[in-house]
Amino acid sequence: MYRFKYSNRREYASFLAQEAVSLLGDWIVGCGVEAVVPVPLYKGKQKRRGYNQAGLFAGKLAKMLRLSYEPAALVRMRDTTPQKVLDDKERKNNLKSAFQAADFVVKYKCILLVDDIYTTGSTAEAAAGELYAAGVKKIYFLAACIGEGF
C-alpha cells in the first residue's frame, strides 16, 4: 500500500480492483449501488502527489462493475493533518467540515464510498455524513486495506 500511495505505483489500482470484484463484486451489485465515489484528497496534496490513490482504485472498480464513477461527488475542503499521525479523538476533530458533497449526488440513492486505508473509520464517517446530508439514502464503504491495530 505504501508504494501505491507514495511511490507512484498506479498500476496497483487494477490489481486491487480485480481482487475487490472477485471477492465482493456480486454483493456490491446486489446491494443496488449506483455509483462509486472515492474519498478525495485535498487539491494541493493531489497536485503534489499527481494522483489520488483512492480515486484510481475506485475508478477501476467502477469500470469493472459497470457502475458510474463520480470523483467530483465529494470535495475535500481543507488540507487536514494526515490521519496516521493522530489519535482517535484528534482524527474525528481533524475531519470536521473537511468534506463537501456536490449538489448532483442527490440523484443517487445508493453509493459505494471507496478509500485506500481504513483505520478508525473517522474518514469514512465524515465523508459519508456529507453524502447523507446531500440526500444519499444508502452508503456502503470499501477500503483496499485496514490500518495498524486491526
Descriptive terms for the model:
single chain, 150 residues, four-stranded parallel sheet, 42% helix
Written description of the protein model:
This protein has 150 residues and is α/β, with parallel strands linked by helices. Helix content is 42%, strand content 20%. It contains 6 helices and 6 strands. The strands form 2 sheets. Strands 2-1-5-6 form a 4-stranded parallel β-sheet, with helices on both faces. The radius of gyration is 14 Å and the shape is globular. The mean pLDDT is 92.
Please indicate the percent range of residues in DSSP E strands (runs of 2 or more): 15-25%
Largest sheet: 4 strands, parallel
Assembly type of the shown chains?
single chain
Q: How many beta-strand segments? A: 6
- Low-pLDDT ranges: none
How would the blueprint of this fold be written?
Elements: H1 2-6, H2 12-30, E1 35-38, H3 43-49, H4 53-65, E2 68-69, E3 74-76, H5 88-94, E4 99-101, E5 110-118, H6 122-133, E6 138-146
Parallel strand pairs: 1-2, 1-5, 5-6
Antiparallel strand pairs: 3-4
Question: Quick summary of this structure?
Answer:
Helix content is 42%, strand content 20%.
